[in-house]
Design goal:
This protein is an alpha+beta fold. The protein has 2 domains: about 190 residues, Penicillin-binding protein 2a (Domain 2) (Alpha-Beta Complex); about 350 residues, Beta-lactamase. Helix content is about 40%, strand content about 20%. It has 24 helices and 23 strands. Strands 2, 3, 4, 5, 12, 19 and 20 form a 7-stranded mixed β-sheet that branches. A hairpin with a 5-residue loop joins β2 and β3. The protein is elongated. Its main location: membrane. Pathway: Cell wall biogenesis; peptidoglycan biosynthesis. Catalyzes cross-linking of the peptidoglycan cell wall. It is found in: Cell inner membrane; Cell membrane; Membrane. It catalyses: Preferential cleavage: (Ac)2-L-Lys-D-Ala-|-D-Ala. Also transpeptidation of peptidyl-alanyl moieties that are N-acyl substituents of D-alanine.
């Protein structure tokens, strides 16, 4: 029994096992300690520079500093485009662990509508340069800012930035001329300088804002800041200040621009006014306008669709893109061309029976006065706007010479120096028709061109420019919108200015001007009612542009037509005759005769500029147009 118990316990063996286990335990501890010490040596010594740099990056952050956009003033120092302080919501995707969860949380906090949320997500995923913040929302209100501040710890990568936001005090009247800024889109990101536009969320989209983007934007800066574990800035370590954009002083006169918009009185149309000697654009209005401030922060879908679907096309810039037949406004230009080409003399007369016929053609091309004006010379042809005289003149000149002479005044070309988006419209020619329709040019089409109809199309800016060149007696000065960039004046003589129009007999200018003056002051002048009480000498020409063509024996009756099928009213003028200070073109869509509905608007613009009077009462202008409509015929 005793031997059996002794075999159950072996102290020597247990001691041996204990020693082995203790050795293995100590060995394991030593190995692990060695590994840990080795790892520490590797991290602290071998990889010191690597992890020191990473630590510094986590602690120190470089932030871009966007420049302040330059301000825009009118010629008198009135502010047209300013920068107002606002708060923007941005998101840096590289600092966000779960983008969808973060966006869900933001939508909940900001109480976004489904439409706003959709735009929110699109902007969040828009292609962006690495570590550049994406603009999610602009112009946050106080409640939104407070909610975001309280929940900041739950929103890594989301920041509320204090920035300056573009604002247009006269958005409606200046929308088309100034244009507007908007959020930078994915396509623009690909082409913009990443250094210059670091931290910038807005860029000029249209108008002056687009053309002078390089001038207005400035140069971005940067700052180096120290942050804590939550990304909150503790202190600024270094800074390179941004270079603000240059201020821009325009040639526009805010009061004259406002007057032009009021004169149109809600009608579709355009008014352009230019200083002939310098090319300064005093007013360039397209009506109706729109609130350009909506586009700065991002217009909502419903509002944008309403603007797009508006039958009056408020987004369409009629002043530089609207194309209209010039009608009889081009008769002074054609008269001068006829003199230059030797086709007519100032005193040569024709007999007008009320129509014109091409040789061996039975069709009658009618004068607006169906029984005719009798004997007509050049000056009277302008004053009474005789069509027959210009049918004859156009036929004798032919389309080739007509095209050459009218192109010299800028028709069919882009004429502005810094007018973004301008259309060249159309000065038709034999080659143009062959290329466009693969058809020959017909003599009857030349007659239509001779009274500013047919294929011929002009923009209001083109017509005002041609009028300024006429007022300058052939001297070309390119129209411009910028008067001063920073402290530097924009020169009058600009690159790519067309050649001056030189004629052999300077007296011809006076004879053409005499006919234009009779339009307003002659007893037969088509706009004689407009000329009553003029305190200066003014030359002008009315025009009526057809919306559709009439048959040979059809008679135009505006009362029987839908409003949008009625003729457009046009008028061009400059004053004073002896020293022109202003040239004006007016187009009022579907308003009827230019001698009634457009002439008074041109007179009001000239009065305001030359006499420095208070803006005329719109109601008085309307009454004058209504009275003229019933007493004065003509185009």
């Amino acid at each position: 029994m005793r031997d059996r118990r002794e075999t159950l316990k072996n102290p020597e063996q247990e001691l041996r096992i204990f020693r082995v286990r203790a050795f293995l335990a100590v060995l394991t501890i030593l190995l692990l300690t060695g590994l840990l010490a080795g790892r520490l040596v590797y991290l602290q010594v071998v990889q010191h520079e690597v992890y020191s740099t990473r630590s510094e990056k986590n602690r120190v952050r470089v932030e871009p500093l966007p420049p302040t956009r330059g301000l825009i003033y009118d010629r008198n120092g009135v502010l047209l485009a300013e920068n107002r302080p606002t708060y923007n919501l941005t998101l840096t995707r590289e600092r966000v662990d779960n983008l969808d969860a973060t966006l869900d949380r933001l939508e909940e906090l900001l109480e976004l509508t489904p439409e706003e949320a959709e735009g929110f997500r699109i902007r969040a995923r828009q292609p962006q340069r690495p570590f550049q913040p994406a603009l999610l929302m602009s112009d946050l209100d106080e409640v939104q800012i407070a909610r975001l501040a309280v929940n900041r710890h739950r929103l890594p990568g989301v920041e509320v930035e204090a920035q300056l936001l573009r604002y247009y005090p006269d958005a409606q009247i200046m929308a088309h001329a100034l244009g507007y800024v908007g959020r930078i889109n994915a396509e623009e990101i690909k082409t913009l300088d990443p250094g210059r536009y670091a931290g910038t969320h807005f860029i000029g989209k249209t108008g002056v804002e687009r053309f002078y983007e390089d001038v207005l934007h400035g140069e971005a800066g940067l700052r180096q800041v120290e942050t804590n574990a939550r990304g909150r800035v503790l202190r600024e370590l270094g800074r390179t200040d941004p270079v603000p954009g240059q201020n821009l002083t325009l040639t526009l006169d805010r009061e004259l621009q406002n007057l032009a918009y009021e004169l149109l009185d809600g009608r579709r149309g355009s008014i352009v006014a230019i200083v002939p000697a310098t090319g300064e654009i005093l007013a360039m209005v397209s009506a109706p306008g729109f609130d350009s401030n909506q586009f700065v922060t991002g217009i909502d879908f419903a509002s944008y669709r309403a603007l797009q679907e508006d039958i009056d096309l408020p987004l369409f810039n009629r002043a530089i893109r609207g194309q209209y037949p010039p009608g009889s406004t081009i008769k002074p230009f054609l008269a001068l061309a006829g003199l230059v080409e030797g086709v007519i003399t100032p005193d040569r007369t024709i007999n007008d029976p009320g129509f014109y016929q091409l040789p061996n053609d039975s069709r009658r091309y009618r004068n607006w006065l169906r029984w005719g004006h009798g004997r007509v010379d050049m000056e009277r042809s302008i004053a009474v706007s005789n069509n027959t005289y210009y049918y004859s003149l156009a036929h004798e000149m032919g389309i080739d010479r007509l095209h050459e002479q009218m192109s010299a005044f800028g028709f069919g070309q882009r004429v502005g120096h810094d007018v973004f988006g301008e259309s060249g419209a159309l000065m038709p020619s034999r080659d143009w028709k062959r290329a466009r329709f693969n058809q020959p040019w017909y003599p009857g089409e030349t007659l239509s061109v001779g009274i500013g109809q047919g294929y011929w199309q002009v923009t209001p800016l083109q017509l005002a420019t041609a009028t300024a060149v006429l007022a300058n007696r052939g001297r070309w000065v390119k129209p411009r919108l910028a008067r001063r960039i920073g402290d530097e004046d924009v020169p009058v003589d600009l690159p790519d200015t067309p050649d001056d129009i030189v004629i052999s007999n300077e007296a011809w200018w006076d004879r053409v001007f005499a006919g234009m003056e009779k339009v307003l002051t002659g007893h037969e002048g088509t706009a004689r009612r407009t000329g009553v009480g003029l305190e200066y000498r003014m030359g002008g020409k009315s025009g009526t542009a057809q919306v559709f063509s009439l048959g040979q024996d059809q008679k135009y009756n505006a009362e029987e037509l839908a409003e949008r099928l009625r003729d457009h009213a046009l008028f061009m003028a400059f004053a004073p005759l002896e020293d022109p200070q202003i040239a004006v073109s007016v187009i009022v869509e579907n308003a009827g005769g230019g001698s009634t509905h457009a002439a008074h608007l041109a007179r009001a613009m000239a009065d305001a500029w030359l006499l420095q009077e208070e803006a005329p009462d719109a109601e008085e202008i309307r009454e004058a147009m209504e009275n003229d409509n019933s007493t004065v015929a003509g185009n």
